[in-house]
Amino acid sequence: MFRVRRIGVVAAVFLAAVAGSPGSTHAQQNTNGSAQSEGRAPAAAADGGLPAGWSVAGEGAARQLVWRSDTPVPISDSGVTFYAGDRFLGRPVGASNGRTFRLALGAAQLGKPSDLQARTGERRLDAAGAGQNRPAGQRPGLAAQPSTRLPAGEVDPGQPGTYRTVTGDYALASIRLPGFARPVEMRAVVVAPTNAPGHRPLALFLHGRHATCYTGHGDDTGGDWPCPAGAKPIPSYRGYLADQKLLASQGYVTVSIAANGINAQDSAAEDGGAQARSSLVRQHLAHWADWAARPTSAPAIVRRASAADLSRVLLVGHSRGGEGVNRAAMDSLYPAPADQDGYRGPVRWHIRGTVLIGPTIFGQNPTPDVPSATILPGCDGDVSDLQGEMYVDATRGVSGGAALHSAVYMVGADHNFFNSEWTPGQAQAPAEDDFWSGDQPDRVCSPGTATRLTARQQQTAGATYIAAAARLFVAGDDRVRPLLDGSGRRAPSADPARVLTHAVGAHRTPAFLPDGPVSVDGGRLCQEVDDNESAACLGSHGVSPHFAHWEASKEPGRRAVALRWTAAGSTVRVRSARPVSIAGSQALAMRLIVPPNTRDTRLDVALTDTSGHRATLGRVHLEGLPGTDRTASHWGQEVRLPLTAAIRAGVDLHRVTVLEIVPRTHSGQAWLIDSWGWRAGTPAVRAAGLARVDIGRLTVKEGDSGVRTYHVPVKVSGHGRGTVRLFVADPETGRTTSREVAVRPGGQSPDVKVEVRGNTRFGYDVSHDVLVKAVHGAVIGAHRGGVTAVNDDPAPTLTVTPASARAAEGRSLTWRISLSTAADTDIQADIAVLPVTGGAELSTTDVDPQWLRENSGKEPLPSRPLSQVSGLLLFADVPPGRTSTDITIPTAADTVTEPEETVRLRLTVYDGSGTSHDGPEFTGTVYDPA
Tell me, what DSSP letter sits at residue 276? Predict the structure, then answer.
């Protein structure tokens, strides 16, 4: 499923090139290899000579990093991301052809060019990494296996119920959604009980971003909508039938809805389609509310099922569908701006909870007062950073904290197999295991390893934990809570899957939260997201879902405590600036990370109050999760220590000031994510009156001169006062600055000013981006926006001279590419070698062998025409501020008498969508010297 958001802006202009006469060309990416260019080096060379497929275009604020794939990149939830080694650079904008991707750079430096990587999930896409199994990093090690299995919970939600079920589809009229040119389908499959008494709770499923169409010929899939002639829709919405049948047997009406129309169009959406998916979910819920009120108006399958109770709704979303149902829960409590929303009717339902399976959360903007359970697949090869952890972590301190937010780490599960229509051997359309093993099997996640689940095992475990969330959030059965809240219980139906959980919320009282006013002795208060390795918690030394990158290189307010010791007894003290109260709690709960594959990390834990009374609560034992450098296995495990020892020692639990952690192993590492006072139970949740903030985007023309000031549109709605953190990105440097801002509906919205300077030269659009995150008392809808200054200057026209070049053998064929006027960005075009239409063709032994190797990777022998050399790709590049460049083909001299030989070339130019168009043809002729 696509996970592509707008960070750079593709110039939407077609520059048609004409040889020998005025025309135009479009600034475009490098291809694999290039003709030698004389004059100033291309912009890419300023960054040290980039690998094949990469280029840097533009200057100043319009500077962009461009990567072009030789083939369309498969559709995925995570989309394409750029890295420099293990340093996250950002998420580029993809062209409609699925091959070209651009990321705004400004003045940011790339570092070592060979470190550049294009990834989707954990898979390398660029040519340099295509054969690699994994990026550079820590050695994989052996997967740690638990010594004992967790005890079984009191109830097993994976056991089928007793109700008979019925299955069928419905299809309604397609709908229009804001920002989407084509209608979106309203299709769903219903699985429901037929003999359950009364009105039954409703569970709605939403799939993620996947290819939309297939032809049935090999692995051919596509991302169009509607599907073109000869292709059929991929029925992703039918991939959760086993989950639906389990819930239906237990008395739930279930419906799984189709979203191919969104998947085909969300690449241009600023939020990756979250608002559109929310609108689609609520459109279906509105129909179900209508049918509950007027049963005779319902589709046949709905009339055959038990009646649905819209006051008890569970939303289940997979991948981008997870982000979509989270937004639907938010929009149901705090309405979205009308101009952005595709549903504007009344809310006639109550969402009791959400289940999010391998979800994206691009905005890191969860709904704090709707309980959630997030399944994190340990072998996710798509959303491989397991950013869904933010549905737990990013709720802390935002609202009252009564809602339980659970993370369910499923060892050995991949991303796709939770949907049977994305699973090889089960799907109607082509499908694959998203965890790519490459040439070297991964010790944890390759099929057949001891830790990797089969598709059926994974699907059974997934269904079990979806049913667990339904039973807790909707049915209110607290006996199932220990399966979700870090209490260390398992559901036998999910065996042999190893599943670990932790949680925040419910009956937890904040104790020592590193984000708050704390200091640390003997350890380090580290930044979860920081491009400074010395400040970061992990840096490039592993991947943690807790430290998932967002869109800023530094994020104030996201901290943890890093522990590293080389001797037992090295005490780490976390001191709170203000006494904390955990009175009334049964235990101290902590979420602690230990490195993957480590064994038997032992830590003693103690508390001290303001009077100096101290008590050791006990000792915890931790085993590292199975992991390699391709998994996000630095994950916080929940441990609990009873407070009885503190009570016996007279520690005042109303006024605790120090948390001590004392390692009892000779060396090791750990990270404290947070600690809480814990007691059993699941409290009732009532949504607070929170402010809602949405950032809009203003698109303006740059103008020809002068400086104009614009204000970023910021909308504050909802109820109550809140605090958010605004991030403002500098398009010149790529750096962000941030500040906390108080917001309230009806008050003055945060004012962010942007200056746009006009000019008369063609260039890229410049995006001045603003981002926002909730701190307290607020939720975030549209998390990014800003002002985009659109280039309003005509593209330069282009000529190629001479149209027919000539050179003696051993000299160079040379053509000049000229622009009618200089531009503020590189003007590039591909050059294809075509068969000649008459006479002899220039061959591989007629050109300089080093030139041939650099531009095709091929050797001269055996001699063959240049047009028959696969991979021979050339390009022309006119750098910013220049009006011409020369392209050359150096030829080789020999002693053989030959007729004149010709090479025939054609420019290929691109429009703003990345679609290629044939440009002019020109030729070169080589003759024997006199």
Answer: H
At 139 the pLDDT is 35
Report CA-CA distances (Å) from 348 to 287, 293, 721, 781, 783: 10, 11, 26, 21, 26
d(CA 250, CA 241): 14
Predicted confidence (pLDDT) at residue 487 exceeds the cutoff of 60: yes
* Angstrom distance (rounded) from CA 776 to CA 722: 6
pLDDT band at 90 (very low <50, low <70, confident <90, very high): confident
Residue 611 tokens, joined: 């009077």
Number of Cβ within 10 Å of residue 723's Cβ equals 16
DSSP state of 74: P
For residue range 303-317, what is the model confidence (pLDDT) as tens digits? 999 999 999 999 999
Q: What is the Cα–Cα distance from 325 to 316, expressed in whole angstroms? A: 7
Burial 805-835 (b: 16+ CB within 10 A, else e): bebebeebbbbbbbbeebbbbbbbbbbbbee
SS3 state of residue 456: helix
DSSP state of 472: I
Please, which residues bridge with residue 170 across strands?
188
Q: How far is CA 388 from CA 133, 384, 560, 595, in A?
A: 24, 10, 18, 20
382, 75 Cβ separation under 8 angstroms = no
For the record, the structure tokens of 786 come out as 């800003």
Q: Do residues 535 and 526 lie in contact, with contact meaning Cβ atoms separated by under 8 Å?
A: yes
Say if residue 496 is preceded by a cis peptide, omega within 30 of 0: yes
C-alpha span between 3 and 272 (Å, rounded)? 6
Q: Are 388 and 324 in contact (CB under 8 A)?
A: no
CA distance 643 to 653: 9
Q: Which residues pair with 637 in a beta bridge?
A: 592
Under a CB-based contact definition with an 8 Å cutoff, are residues 904 and 784 in contact? Answer: no
Per-residue pLDDT of 207-251, as tens digits, reads 999 999 999 999 999 999 999 999 999 999 999 999 999 999 999
Least confidently predicted of 128-137, 350-359, 425-434, 831-840:
128-137
